[in-house]
Amino acid sequence: MNHKHKKGWIFLILCPPLIFLGVTWIVMALWNCLLPDILGVKSITYWQAMGILILSKILFGGFHFGKGMKDFKERKMREKMMYLSLEEREKFKEVWRSKCEGGFFNRNNRTNE
Length: 113
Known about the structure:
Blueprint: H1 3-39, H2 46-61, H3 67-82, H4 86-100, H5 107-112
Helix pairs in contact: 1-2
């Protein structure tokens, strides 16, 4: 048995939890150093910092479980585009260009014209 590969697996298993614990400590340290003086809030414990970190990940970051599905959809779309003729491809691009030209905030203005 090759011990070099065994060490690699141990590293891959131990690294993410250690990074998470270190980031939790950084959150706690920054909170306790900055926010009590700036906002007048109480200092927090390590476990409260971990809770804040997890809550902020849920609220603002998501967990990105469907990343593989996104790659699959993009690959499938590329395959569909490969089989289109040049005219069909240009027509497709023009339709999407007209849908996106106004941007997100100008969608209502375009329908009122």
